[in-house]
Amino acid sequence: MARALRRIGGMLLTLVIASFIIFAAMYAAPGDPVTFLIGNPENLTPERIASVRAQYHLDEPLLAQYWHWASGVVTGDFGRSFQYHQPVSDILAARVPITLSLVAYASVLLAIGGIGLGVLAAVRRGKPIDTAIVGGTTLAASVPSFVLGIALVALFAVQLGWFPVAGAGSGGADRVWALTLPALTLAIGALAIVSRVTRQSMIEQFSSEHVEAARATGLAERFVVRDHVLRGAWGPIITMVALVIASMIAGTVAVETVFGISGVGSLLVDAINTHDFPVVQSVLLFMVIAYMVVTTVVDLLLPVLDPRINRTAVSA
């Protein structure tokens, strides 16, 4: 319990620091937000400028502006979009489910493909299939996600017509089908990391004493791999999978833009291009929170999945 409380306290402190950095970065960005809020240059009168500054607290010091914004965020008020003239919370509510669906789909593909290839490479270590898996996944990871996405669209959507060119579908099975290529684009780039960690963790377990003891009892090799090697390697594998999944939220920026998906990633790109500061701040804060939640949950669950971590912490 004490460990969980310390972890949550550290997360809250990190969140406060990150939120201030995000807000200050927008404050220091080039361009005056007032010009974007007023729009028509003919309306840039001193009275109008003063009125807008007072309305959005832009005439107050940075710390006071941050307090207004942060106190609103705590209550679910992220401000109003400069571009859409709507509450940012409403815009996020419409976009977040699409992005989370994409990340969840990509996470399933990543876990199945990355762990599966890593297990195969570890079991066949030193053989041609091991070299092919390591080389192939490394090559795939070296291709930028937007290039990979364009290639998949050109082949499977335009040439073969198997998938829609753009969009996230209307829901249900249609959404799953529409998000297949974007999810593959997200997952393929991270396959090398997960498969390499899986392979290395399992190879280290192959030489451990409990695995040698299991072999000495005459246990079949497939059961040795499943019940002893893979079980002992779960800690690093789960940690890496969680870190990759958490970072996928940021990876949706390029993927959603390529596939024309109206998610959080494409919203961030549009907001940056239009200097929509409240939206930019909220999306970046959402990405930070998502990353912190995933990593914190995994950190708290690892001792349950691998009791050796708990024993190590106690002995230390």
From TrEMBL:
One of the Pfam families matching this protein, by short name: BPD_transp_1
Cellular component per GO, a single term: plasma membrane
Protein's UniProt name: ABC transporter permease
Keywords: Cell membrane, Membrane, Transmembrane, Transmembrane helix, Transport
Species name: Leucobacter chromiiresistens
Membrane topology: Multi-pass membrane protein
Entry's Gene Ontology BP terms: transmembrane transport
Entries under InterPro entries matching the protein: BPD_transp_1_N (IPR045621), MetI-like (IPR000515), MetI-like_sf (IPR035906)
Location of the ABC transmembrane type-1 domain: 96-302
Transmembrane segment boundaries: 102-123, 132-156, 176-194, 237-259, 279-302
Family: Belongs to the binding-protein-dependent transport system permease family.
